[in-house]
Write a sequence for this structure.
C-alpha cells in the first residue's frame, strides 16, 4: 500500500506520540492531523459536557486545538499530551462560557422590558434533561471538576494538574458539586449519595 511515511495514523506502527509531537512542533501538518484525529472525540465530548450545545462544543473544540498547536513548544512531556490538551480545552470552555454569559445577561436585561410568558410543554422534564440542566446550573468551578471526574473519569491528581489547583481543592469542589446536585435534584438524587 501507500504507507511510505505519508498519511500515517497515530495507530500505525513505528510512529509514537512523541515522534508525532516532534514533527508537529516543526510544523508538520500530517503530524498535527494525526494528533487531532487521535484526540478530537474526547475533546469534543468534554466540550459538549461543559457547554451543553453542539455548536458551542464544536467551536470550543476547534479553539482548543488551535491554541494547543500554537503552544506546542510549551508542552512539557512530564504530562500526557491528552491531559495537557484537555487542560487547554477546559480553559477555552470556561472562558467561552463566561463570555456567553455576559452577552446573555445583556440580552436578558433588554428582555425584562417586555417579558414574554410562554407556556412550557411538560412540567415534568425527562430525568436525563433534569440531570443535564442541574449539571449546567452548577458554578463553573464545580461543574468542571464534576465533568472531569464523574463523567470523563480523570483522577483528582490529573484534574489538579489541569486546573493548576491542589488535589484537596479538586476533591472539595467535587464534593460541593455533588452536594449541589443533590439539592437541585431532590427526589432523584440517590445517584449522587
Amino acid at each position: 500500500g501507500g504507507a511510505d511515511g505519508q498519511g500515517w495514523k497515530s495507530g500505525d506502527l513505528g510512529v509514537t506520540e512523541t515522534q508525532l509531537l516532534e514533527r508537529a512542533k516543526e510544523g508538520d501538518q500530517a503530524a498535527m492531523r494525526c494528533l487531532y484525529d487521535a484526540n478530537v472525540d474526547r475533546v469534543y465530548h468534554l466540550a459538549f459536557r461543559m457547554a451543553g450545545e453542539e455548536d458551542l462544543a464544536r467551536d470550543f473544540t476547534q479553539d482548543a486545538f488551535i491554541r494547543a498547536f500554537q503552544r506546542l513548544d510549551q508542552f512539557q512531556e512530564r504530562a500526557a499530551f491528552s491531559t495537557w490538551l484537555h487542560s487547554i480545552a477546559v480553559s477555552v470552555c470556561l472562558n467561552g462560557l463566561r463570555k456567553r454569559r455576559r452577552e446573555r445577561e445583556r440580552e436578558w436585561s433588554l428582555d425584562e422590558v417586555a417579558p414574554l410568558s410562554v407556556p412550557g410543554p411538560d412540567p415534568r422534564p425527562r430525568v436525563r434533561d433534569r440531570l443535564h440542566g442541574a449539571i449546567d446550573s452548577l458554578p463553573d468551578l464545580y461543574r468542571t471538576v464534576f465533568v472531569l471526574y464523574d463523567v470523563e473519569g480523570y483522577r483528582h491528581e490529573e484534574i489538579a494538574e489541569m486546573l493548576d489547583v491542589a488535589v484537596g481543592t479538586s476533591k472539595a469542589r467535587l464534593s460541593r458539586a455533588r452536594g449541589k446536585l443533590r439539592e437541585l435534584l431532590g427526589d432523584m438524587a440517590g445517584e449522587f449519595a
Summary: Confidence is low (pLDDT under 50) at residues 1-8, 114-120.
